[in-house]
């Protein structure tokens, strides 16, 4: 027995953009964040609720190409603190923190001077953390700057939420068995079909039958 | 008729005299009256955060340190053998110490057990802090989970009536979060100035006060300092100032303390 939403997710899964296009969205977010703050790097870390870890999902600048997929504990360190407390933080001389410097060097090979980190919150859920590393020293820091980061993080959170919804929907479709998978495959076939008039007519007839059964 | 010294739900005219509250308020409440020569002595301030490095020279020792652990949905309080898992709790403790050098500091660590269940850990830690009777609890954190809002609200009101002041950093994001929105806590955002002794009352709550929160050199676990910015550093300023007021004027209720902070803010005329 399934709840109604999994069929809807199955239909959505058949028509969803690919994982790659969502990755492109996240990459664009970190690229723009890096550009706005004239920073050396920017990254999005997503909370993996199954393992309770933070995972690098997108990186721009230093670490690009190496860090995606890297995992670390969800409630320690600066990113973990931001995730749990929901509070943005800006630190300007991180190299003074021996533990951070050591861990950053071990994980990424790059120890930033400064970091801005903000939680990615969508509704009630904190999905991850957006970081901007080594913003330009020529920029005088102000409350307006953190407000800008927060506004931008809000947009990133929406992107992340879309990606996670798509992943859940794809997981339904990829299960390969059960009603949802069939519905997902039909939706995908219709999406790819160039001549779907006959198929749609058949589905409309099926809809009529199902409506009578449901009433 | 039974004698009732402290009326619970109503007050008879005959009993009114029995609850006279000695009022030693000056004609004008000023900063000098509120915190002049105060040190925070005998006031217990709790840092509910990532743990505290008590050996840090800017923290100058802590009086107790516990951690909240979680098994299933059951939280337990255990002695903290780990210390600060981030550095932030040490920063908050250092800020409170810089303002209230003689206060007693207590650490309740609610981080380090994973993100799942973190709201339970925060609730468990807060419940413990209120039970201990700490006068001031610094909460540089918030949760967006609605299902915890009601429990947090009950705890915040419980603290308010038991005389524990909760100082919570405001969330400067377009989301609903708690506990800073509750009227029974003191909520704090950042002002852009660089004076730790300056605070402002906000005429347009829910953020009630603004304190220093930008470009601060704060203690960080490991012994050094970091230059930091965030509302999470503004809250411990008000926590430290609260400790000063309470050490000079013991027994003030959270309502009275908030009024004193309001009357002595830089924008309300009592800042001398």
Task: Explain what the structure shows.
The complex is a heterodimer of chains A (215) and B (272). Helices cover 53% and strands 19% of the residues of chain A. With 215 residues, chain A is of the alpha+beta class. The model of chain A has no long low-confidence stretch (mean pLDDT 83). With 272 residues, chain B is of the alpha/beta class. In chain B, strand 8 and strand 9 form a beta hairpin. In chain B, helix 2 runs parallel beside helix 5 and helix 3 packs parallel to helix 4. The mean pLDDT of chain B is 93. Classes of the chains: A alpha+beta (215), B alpha/beta (272). Chains A and B meet through helix 3, strand 4, helix 4, strand 5 and helix 5 of A and strand 11 of B. Strand 4 of chain A pairs antiparallel with strand 11 of chain B.
Number of helical runs of chain B?
A: 6
Globally, the shape of chain A reads elongated
Most extensive interface:
A-B, 43 and 44 residues
Q: Oligomeric form of this entry?
A: heterodimer
Strand content of chain A: 15-25%
Unreliable stretches of chain A:
none
**Biggest sheet character of chain A:** 6 strands, antiparallel
Helix/strand/pairing class of chain B, anyone? alpha/beta
Contiguous helical run count of chain A: 7
Shape of chain B: globular
Low-pLDDT residue intervals, each spanning 5 or more residues of chain B: none
Helix content of chain A: 40-55%
